[in-house]
Specification:
alpha+beta, single chain, disordered N terminus, three-stranded antiparallel beta sheet, 17 helices, 426 residues
Protein backbone atom coordinates (compact mmCIF):
# COMPACT_ATOMS: atom_id res chain seq x y z
CA UNK A 1 0.00 0.00 0.00
CA UNK A 2 1.35 3.40 -0.92
CA UNK A 3 1.27 6.54 1.19
CA UNK A 4 -0.88 8.32 -1.41
CA UNK A 5 -3.49 5.57 -1.65
CA UNK A 6 -3.77 5.24 2.11
CA UNK A 7 -4.24 8.95 2.75
CA UNK A 8 -6.63 9.34 -0.17
CA UNK A 9 -8.73 6.45 1.05
CA UNK A 10 -8.91 7.95 4.50
CA UNK A 11 -10.31 11.28 3.33
CA UNK A 12 -13.26 10.17 1.18
CA UNK A 13 -16.70 10.89 2.60
CA UNK A 14 -19.42 8.23 2.51
CA UNK A 15 -23.10 8.83 1.84
CA UNK A 16 -25.46 7.49 4.51
CA UNK A 17 -27.56 4.81 2.84
CA UNK A 18 -29.87 2.26 4.43
CA UNK A 19 -28.46 -1.25 4.59
CA UNK A 20 -30.03 -4.41 3.31
CA UNK A 21 -28.79 -8.01 3.29
CA UNK A 22 -25.71 -8.83 1.26
CA UNK A 23 -24.41 -11.84 -0.60
CA UNK A 24 -21.24 -13.19 -2.16
CA UNK A 25 -22.15 -11.95 -5.61
CA UNK A 26 -21.08 -9.01 -7.75
CA UNK A 27 -18.63 -6.36 -6.57
CA UNK A 28 -16.72 -3.47 -8.17
CA UNK A 29 -14.58 -4.08 -11.21
CA UNK A 30 -11.21 -5.41 -10.18
CA UNK A 31 -8.88 -8.39 -10.16
CA UNK A 32 -10.46 -11.64 -9.04
CA UNK A 33 -8.59 -14.48 -7.36
CA UNK A 34 -10.10 -17.74 -6.15
CA UNK A 35 -13.19 -19.46 -7.44
CA UNK A 36 -16.47 -20.92 -6.28
CA UNK A 37 -16.81 -24.60 -5.43
CA UNK A 38 -20.12 -26.38 -4.99
CA UNK A 39 -20.90 -27.49 -1.44
CA UNK A 40 -18.79 -24.82 0.25
CA UNK A 41 -19.56 -21.52 1.92
CA UNK A 42 -18.40 -18.98 -0.65
CA UNK A 43 -17.28 -15.55 0.51
CA UNK A 44 -16.30 -12.41 -1.36
CA UNK A 45 -13.41 -10.39 0.06
CA UNK A 46 -12.72 -6.82 -1.09
CA UNK A 47 -9.33 -5.25 -0.43
CA UNK A 48 -7.15 -2.57 -1.97
CA UNK A 49 -3.67 -4.05 -1.54
CA UNK A 50 -2.29 -3.68 -5.06
CA UNK A 51 1.47 -4.04 -4.65
CA UNK A 52 3.70 -6.77 -3.21
CA UNK A 53 1.57 -6.79 -0.07
CA UNK A 54 -1.44 -7.73 -2.21
CA UNK A 55 0.42 -10.70 -3.67
CA UNK A 56 1.21 -11.93 -0.17
CA UNK A 57 -2.36 -11.49 1.08
CA UNK A 58 -3.81 -13.22 -1.98
CA UNK A 59 -1.40 -16.11 -1.43
CA UNK A 60 -2.58 -16.43 2.18
CA UNK A 61 -6.16 -16.57 0.88
CA UNK A 62 -5.22 -19.23 -1.69
CA UNK A 63 -3.44 -21.26 0.99
CA UNK A 64 -6.49 -20.99 3.24
CA UNK A 65 -8.74 -22.20 0.43
CA UNK A 66 -6.43 -25.14 -0.21
CA UNK A 67 -6.22 -26.02 3.49
CA UNK A 68 -9.87 -27.05 3.82
CA UNK A 69 -13.04 -27.71 1.81
CA UNK A 70 -15.68 -25.90 3.86
CA UNK A 71 -14.93 -22.29 2.89
CA UNK A 72 -13.91 -20.68 -0.38
CA UNK A 73 -12.86 -17.01 -0.43
CA UNK A 74 -12.97 -15.09 -3.70
CA UNK A 75 -10.89 -11.92 -3.65
CA UNK A 76 -11.82 -8.73 -5.48
CA UNK A 77 -8.83 -6.34 -5.60
CA UNK A 78 -10.18 -2.81 -5.95
CA UNK A 79 -8.68 0.63 -5.19
CA UNK A 80 -9.30 1.80 -1.64
CA UNK A 81 -11.19 4.85 -2.86
CA UNK A 82 -13.55 2.70 -4.91
CA UNK A 83 -14.24 0.47 -1.91
CA UNK A 84 -15.13 3.53 0.13
CA UNK A 85 -17.37 4.90 -2.62
CA UNK A 86 -19.23 1.69 -3.37
CA UNK A 87 -19.46 -0.34 -0.17
CA UNK A 88 -22.72 1.06 1.23
CA UNK A 89 -24.53 1.15 -2.13
CA UNK A 90 -23.43 -2.43 -2.81
CA UNK A 91 -24.64 -3.60 0.58
CA UNK A 92 -27.93 -1.78 0.09
CA UNK A 93 -28.37 -3.55 -3.24
CA UNK A 94 -27.64 -6.91 -1.67
CA UNK A 95 -24.47 -7.64 -3.64
CA UNK A 96 -21.70 -6.37 -1.38
CA UNK A 97 -18.74 -8.29 0.00
CA UNK A 98 -18.73 -10.59 3.00
CA UNK A 99 -15.28 -9.42 4.14
CA UNK A 100 -13.87 -5.97 3.42
CA UNK A 101 -10.55 -4.29 4.21
CA UNK A 102 -10.24 -0.51 4.56
CA UNK A 103 -8.20 2.21 6.27
CA UNK A 104 -9.05 1.79 9.94
CA UNK A 105 -10.25 5.36 10.45
CA UNK A 106 -13.13 4.57 8.07
CA UNK A 107 -14.35 1.57 10.09
CA UNK A 108 -16.34 3.61 12.67
CA UNK A 109 -18.33 5.24 9.85
CA UNK A 110 -19.65 1.89 8.68
CA UNK A 111 -20.03 0.42 12.16
CA UNK A 112 -22.16 3.44 13.07
CA UNK A 113 -24.45 2.62 10.12
CA UNK A 114 -24.84 -1.02 11.16
CA UNK A 115 -22.77 -2.34 8.27
CA UNK A 116 -20.38 -4.57 10.23
CA UNK A 117 -20.82 -7.61 12.42
CA UNK A 118 -19.98 -7.66 16.13
CA UNK A 119 -16.77 -9.66 16.61
CA UNK A 120 -16.55 -9.69 20.41
CA UNK A 121 -17.17 -13.45 20.48
CA UNK A 122 -14.32 -13.98 18.03
CA UNK A 123 -11.93 -12.12 20.31
CA UNK A 124 -13.17 -14.03 23.36
CA UNK A 125 -12.27 -17.43 21.85
CA UNK A 126 -8.59 -18.16 22.64
CA UNK A 127 -8.41 -20.59 19.72
CA UNK A 128 -8.55 -17.69 17.28
CA UNK A 129 -5.19 -16.23 18.34
CA UNK A 130 -6.65 -12.75 18.86
CA UNK A 131 -5.31 -12.62 22.42
CA UNK A 132 -1.79 -12.19 21.01
CA UNK A 133 -2.63 -9.12 18.94
CA UNK A 134 -1.17 -5.68 19.64
CA UNK A 135 -3.70 -4.04 22.03
CA UNK A 136 -3.46 -0.74 20.16
CA UNK A 137 -4.42 -2.51 16.94
CA UNK A 138 -7.48 -3.98 18.65
CA UNK A 139 -8.46 -0.56 20.03
CA UNK A 140 -8.27 0.69 16.46
CA UNK A 141 -11.20 -1.54 15.39
CA UNK A 142 -13.32 -0.98 18.51
CA UNK A 143 -16.31 1.38 18.51
CA UNK A 144 -18.27 2.10 21.70
CA UNK A 145 -16.65 -0.88 23.39
CA UNK A 146 -17.52 -3.36 20.63
CA UNK A 147 -15.01 -4.87 18.20
CA UNK A 148 -16.30 -4.49 14.64
CA UNK A 149 -13.21 -5.64 12.82
CA UNK A 150 -9.75 -7.13 13.01
CA UNK A 151 -6.49 -5.37 12.17
CA UNK A 152 -4.61 -6.21 9.01
CA UNK A 153 -1.97 -3.54 9.55
CA UNK A 154 -0.78 -1.36 12.41
CA UNK A 155 2.44 0.62 12.26
CA UNK A 156 3.41 3.68 14.29
CA UNK A 157 4.94 6.68 12.59
CA UNK A 158 8.70 6.75 13.05
CA UNK A 159 11.68 9.04 12.64
CA UNK A 160 13.50 8.48 9.34
CA UNK A 161 16.90 10.09 8.92
CA UNK A 162 19.67 10.48 6.37
CA UNK A 163 22.70 8.66 7.75
CA UNK A 164 25.14 10.43 5.43
CA UNK A 165 24.06 13.85 6.67
CA UNK A 166 24.39 12.63 10.26
CA UNK A 167 27.87 11.24 9.54
CA UNK A 168 29.03 14.46 7.89
CA UNK A 169 27.98 16.39 11.01
CA UNK A 170 29.64 13.89 13.33
CA UNK A 171 26.33 12.81 14.89
CA UNK A 172 26.38 9.11 15.70
CA UNK A 173 22.88 8.45 17.04
CA UNK A 174 19.34 9.66 16.36
CA UNK A 175 17.77 11.81 19.08
CA UNK A 176 15.93 10.08 21.90
CA UNK A 177 13.84 12.95 23.31
CA UNK A 178 12.43 16.30 22.25
CA UNK A 179 15.29 18.40 23.56
CA UNK A 180 17.84 16.23 21.76
CA UNK A 181 15.64 16.29 18.66
CA UNK A 182 15.73 20.07 18.51
CA UNK A 183 19.45 20.26 19.26
CA UNK A 184 20.19 17.66 16.58
CA UNK A 185 17.97 19.49 14.09
CA UNK A 186 19.76 22.78 14.83
CA UNK A 187 23.14 21.14 14.29
CA UNK A 188 21.98 19.75 10.94
CA UNK A 189 20.38 22.96 9.66
CA UNK A 190 22.61 24.75 7.15
CA UNK A 191 22.06 28.34 6.00
CA UNK A 192 25.22 28.93 3.97
CA UNK A 193 24.44 32.47 2.83
CA UNK A 194 22.74 33.53 6.07
CA UNK A 195 19.65 34.72 4.22
CA UNK A 196 17.29 33.13 6.74
CA UNK A 197 16.25 30.32 4.39
CA UNK A 198 18.36 27.23 5.05
CA UNK A 199 19.62 25.21 2.13
CA UNK A 200 19.34 22.16 4.37
CA UNK A 201 16.87 21.75 7.21
CA UNK A 202 17.60 19.60 10.20
CA UNK A 203 14.09 18.17 10.09
CA UNK A 204 10.92 18.67 8.11
CA UNK A 205 7.76 18.79 10.24
CA UNK A 206 4.73 19.59 8.07
CA UNK A 207 2.16 21.85 9.68
CA UNK A 208 -0.90 20.54 7.79
CA UNK A 209 -2.04 17.50 5.82
CA UNK A 210 0.67 15.55 7.60
CA UNK A 211 1.55 11.95 6.93
CA UNK A 212 -1.57 9.90 7.68
CA UNK A 213 -2.69 12.94 9.72
CA UNK A 214 -0.57 11.63 12.57
CA UNK A 215 2.39 13.95 13.18
CA UNK A 216 0.72 16.49 15.46
CA UNK A 217 -1.34 13.91 17.36
CA UNK A 218 1.97 12.13 18.04
CA UNK A 219 3.48 15.34 19.39
CA UNK A 220 0.39 16.03 21.50
CA UNK A 221 0.60 12.51 22.97
CA UNK A 222 4.27 13.02 23.83
CA UNK A 223 3.41 15.90 26.15
CA UNK A 224 0.41 14.19 27.73
CA UNK A 225 -2.19 15.78 25.45
CA UNK A 226 -4.81 14.36 23.11
CA UNK A 227 -7.57 15.38 20.70
CA UNK A 228 -10.47 13.17 21.75
CA UNK A 229 -10.61 11.11 24.95
CA UNK A 230 -13.51 8.93 26.10
CA UNK A 231 -15.67 10.39 23.37
CA UNK A 232 -15.09 14.02 24.40
CA UNK A 233 -13.06 16.81 22.80
CA UNK A 234 -9.93 17.57 24.83
CA UNK A 235 -7.81 19.42 22.31
CA UNK A 236 -7.92 22.72 24.22
CA UNK A 237 -5.55 21.80 27.03
CA UNK A 238 -2.47 23.28 28.71
CA UNK A 239 -0.47 20.29 27.48
CA UNK A 240 -1.33 20.94 23.83
CA UNK A 241 -0.64 24.65 24.26
CA UNK A 242 2.84 23.81 25.59
CA UNK A 243 3.44 21.45 22.67
CA UNK A 244 2.51 24.05 20.08
CA UNK A 245 4.69 26.68 21.79
CA UNK A 246 7.67 24.32 22.02
CA UNK A 247 7.57 23.33 18.37
CA UNK A 248 6.81 26.83 17.13
CA UNK A 249 9.94 28.03 18.90
CA UNK A 250 11.95 25.31 17.15
CA UNK A 251 10.35 25.56 13.71
CA UNK A 252 9.90 29.32 13.43
CA UNK A 253 12.45 30.60 15.92
CA UNK A 254 15.31 28.21 15.25
CA UNK A 255 14.29 27.54 11.62
CA UNK A 256 14.96 23.82 11.94
CA UNK A 257 12.01 23.07 9.62
CA UNK A 258 10.24 25.01 6.91
CA UNK A 259 6.68 26.21 7.48
CA UNK A 260 3.69 25.82 5.19
CA UNK A 261 4.72 22.31 4.14
CA UNK A 262 2.32 19.37 3.87
CA UNK A 263 3.13 15.67 4.11
CA UNK A 264 3.87 15.20 0.42
CA UNK A 265 6.12 18.24 0.45
CA UNK A 266 7.94 16.79 3.45
CA UNK A 267 8.64 13.57 1.55
CA UNK A 268 9.98 15.60 -1.37
CA UNK A 269 12.33 17.64 0.82
CA UNK A 270 13.70 14.53 2.48
CA UNK A 271 14.09 12.63 -0.79
CA UNK A 272 16.02 15.55 -2.32
CA UNK A 273 18.46 15.66 0.60
CA UNK A 274 17.21 19.06 1.78
CA UNK A 275 16.05 17.73 5.16
CA UNK A 276 18.04 15.43 7.42
CA UNK A 277 15.07 13.98 9.32
CA UNK A 278 11.39 13.40 8.71
CA UNK A 279 8.48 11.53 10.24
CA UNK A 280 6.89 8.88 8.07
CA UNK A 281 5.92 5.29 7.48
CA UNK A 282 7.40 2.18 5.85
CA UNK A 283 7.15 3.68 2.34
CA UNK A 284 10.11 5.87 3.28
CA UNK A 285 12.27 2.81 2.65
CA UNK A 286 11.33 2.91 -1.04
CA UNK A 287 11.69 6.69 -1.26
CA UNK A 288 15.19 6.40 0.21
CA UNK A 289 16.17 3.58 -2.12
CA UNK A 290 14.92 5.51 -5.17
CA UNK A 291 17.07 8.47 -4.15
CA UNK A 292 20.20 6.62 -2.97
CA UNK A 293 19.71 7.70 0.64
CA UNK A 294 21.32 5.61 3.35
CA UNK A 295 18.30 5.46 5.65
CA UNK A 296 18.15 5.23 9.41
CA UNK A 297 14.96 4.42 11.31
CA UNK A 298 14.25 5.29 14.94
CA UNK A 299 11.26 5.79 17.20
CA UNK A 300 9.74 9.26 17.32
CA UNK A 301 11.68 10.89 20.16
CA UNK A 302 10.00 10.79 23.55
CA UNK A 303 8.15 13.86 24.72
CA UNK A 304 8.31 15.28 28.25
CA UNK A 305 5.52 12.95 29.39
CA UNK A 306 5.38 9.94 27.10
CA UNK A 307 6.84 8.17 24.10
CA UNK A 308 4.00 7.63 21.68
CA UNK A 309 3.28 7.75 17.97
CA UNK A 310 0.10 7.85 15.99
CA UNK A 311 -0.28 4.60 14.09
CA UNK A 312 -1.38 3.98 10.54
CA UNK A 313 -3.87 1.14 10.40
CA UNK A 314 -5.83 -1.08 8.04
CA UNK A 315 -8.78 -3.13 9.24
CA UNK A 316 -10.84 -6.06 7.99
CA UNK A 317 -14.52 -6.45 8.85
CA UNK A 318 -17.37 -8.85 8.22
CA UNK A 319 -20.44 -7.22 6.73
CA UNK A 320 -23.58 -7.62 8.82
CA UNK A 321 -26.09 -10.14 7.51
CA UNK A 322 -28.49 -12.76 8.81
CA UNK A 323 -26.34 -15.78 7.95
CA UNK A 324 -24.39 -17.30 10.84
CA UNK A 325 -22.59 -19.63 8.43
CA UNK A 326 -21.07 -16.69 6.57
CA UNK A 327 -19.83 -15.02 9.75
CA UNK A 328 -18.42 -18.31 11.05
CA UNK A 329 -16.63 -18.90 7.74
CA UNK A 330 -15.14 -15.40 7.74
CA UNK A 331 -13.99 -15.79 11.33
CA UNK A 332 -12.36 -19.09 10.36
CA UNK A 333 -10.28 -17.17 7.81
CA UNK A 334 -9.36 -14.50 10.35
CA UNK A 335 -8.09 -17.18 12.74
CA UNK A 336 -6.01 -18.64 9.92
CA UNK A 337 -4.66 -15.18 9.05
CA UNK A 338 -3.55 -14.64 12.66
CA UNK A 339 -1.62 -17.90 12.96
CA UNK A 340 2.03 -17.28 13.78
CA UNK A 341 3.21 -18.59 10.40
CA UNK A 342 0.91 -16.29 8.47
CA UNK A 343 1.58 -13.38 10.83
CA UNK A 344 5.27 -13.62 9.92
CA UNK A 345 4.62 -14.09 6.19
CA UNK A 346 2.25 -11.12 6.12
CA UNK A 347 4.62 -8.89 8.08
CA UNK A 348 7.62 -9.66 5.90
CA UNK A 349 5.57 -9.28 2.72
CA UNK A 350 3.77 -6.09 3.69
CA UNK A 351 6.75 -4.40 5.35
CA UNK A 352 4.72 -3.65 8.47
CA UNK A 353 5.37 -4.98 12.00
CA UNK A 354 3.63 -8.25 12.88
CA UNK A 355 0.20 -7.85 14.40
CA UNK A 356 1.01 -10.49 16.99
CA UNK A 357 3.20 -9.42 19.88
CA UNK A 358 4.67 -12.90 20.41
CA UNK A 359 6.51 -13.22 17.08
CA UNK A 360 10.22 -13.78 17.84
CA UNK A 361 12.62 -11.12 16.56
CA UNK A 362 14.75 -13.64 14.68
CA UNK A 363 11.75 -14.48 12.47
CA UNK A 364 11.86 -10.96 11.00
CA UNK A 365 15.55 -10.41 10.29
CA UNK A 366 15.25 -10.88 6.51
CA UNK A 367 13.33 -7.58 6.25
CA UNK A 368 15.40 -4.79 7.80
CA UNK A 369 12.51 -2.31 7.83
CA UNK A 370 10.22 -4.71 9.65
CA UNK A 371 12.99 -5.60 12.11
CA UNK A 372 13.54 -1.89 12.85
CA UNK A 373 9.87 -0.97 13.18
CA UNK A 374 8.70 -3.93 15.25
CA UNK A 375 10.21 -2.79 18.60
CA UNK A 376 8.42 0.55 18.11
CA UNK A 377 4.99 -1.04 17.73
CA UNK A 378 4.42 -0.78 21.48
CA UNK A 379 4.45 3.03 21.16
CA UNK A 380 1.70 3.04 18.53
CA UNK A 381 -1.67 4.62 19.27
CA UNK A 382 -4.64 4.40 16.93
CA UNK A 383 -5.71 7.73 15.48
CA UNK A 384 -9.11 8.80 16.84
CA UNK A 385 -10.36 5.27 17.60
CA UNK A 386 -14.13 4.96 17.51
CA UNK A 387 -14.64 8.49 16.17
CA UNK A 388 -17.12 8.54 13.28
CA UNK A 389 -16.50 12.03 11.90
CA UNK A 390 -12.72 11.94 11.68
CA UNK A 391 -12.74 14.20 8.62
CA UNK A 392 -13.98 17.27 10.49
CA UNK A 393 -11.87 16.53 13.55
CA UNK A 394 -8.70 16.28 11.51
CA UNK A 395 -9.63 19.40 9.56
CA UNK A 396 -9.80 21.28 12.86
CA UNK A 397 -6.37 19.95 13.83
CA UNK A 398 -4.90 20.96 10.47
CA UNK A 399 -6.21 24.49 10.79
CA UNK A 400 -4.92 24.73 14.35
CA UNK A 401 -1.38 23.59 13.61
CA UNK A 402 -0.94 25.52 10.39
CA UNK A 403 -2.15 28.79 11.86
CA UNK A 404 -0.15 28.24 15.07
CA UNK A 405 3.05 27.76 13.08
CA UNK A 406 2.14 30.92 11.13
CA UNK A 407 2.31 32.88 14.39
CA UNK A 408 -1.33 33.28 15.45
CA UNK A 409 -2.37 33.27 19.12
CA UNK A 410 -2.31 29.69 20.37
CA UNK A 411 -4.92 30.09 23.11
CA UNK A 412 -7.41 31.53 20.64
CA UNK A 413 -6.69 28.81 18.11
CA UNK A 414 -7.11 26.03 20.68
CA UNK A 415 -10.46 27.42 21.81
CA UNK A 416 -11.67 27.49 18.20
CA UNK A 417 -10.39 23.96 17.57
CA UNK A 418 -12.15 22.72 20.69
CA UNK A 419 -15.48 24.10 19.45
CA UNK A 420 -15.00 22.51 16.02
CA UNK A 421 -14.07 19.11 17.44
CA UNK A 422 -17.05 19.22 19.81
CA UNK A 423 -19.32 19.97 16.85
CA UNK A 424 -17.81 17.10 14.88
CA UNK A 425 -18.48 14.69 17.76
CA UNK A 426 -22.16 15.73 18.20
Amino acid sequence: MTRTSLVAGALIAVAGLALAGCSSADSPDGITVGGATAGTTDLTFWHGYTEADGDVLNQIVDDFNASQDAVRINVEVTPWAVIDDTLLPSLSAGNGPDIVAMPAERLPVYADRGAFADLDAFYADPANGAGSLNPGAVDMVTVDGVAYGVPSGFVPLALYYNKAIFDDAGIAEPPADWDAWVETAKALTVDENSDGTPEQYGVVLPDHATVANGLWPSLFYGNGGDIVADGAAVIDSPENAETLEFWRDAIVGDKVSPTGVDGIGADELFSSGKAAMTVGGPWMTFIAADNDIDLGIAAIPAGPVDQAASAIGISMAITAQDDPAVQAAAEQFFAYFFSEENAVAWSLGSGWPPLRTDVPADALTENATVAALTPMAEFGRPLLPGVVNTTDVLSAVDELTQRAMAGEDIATLLAAAQAKVEAALD
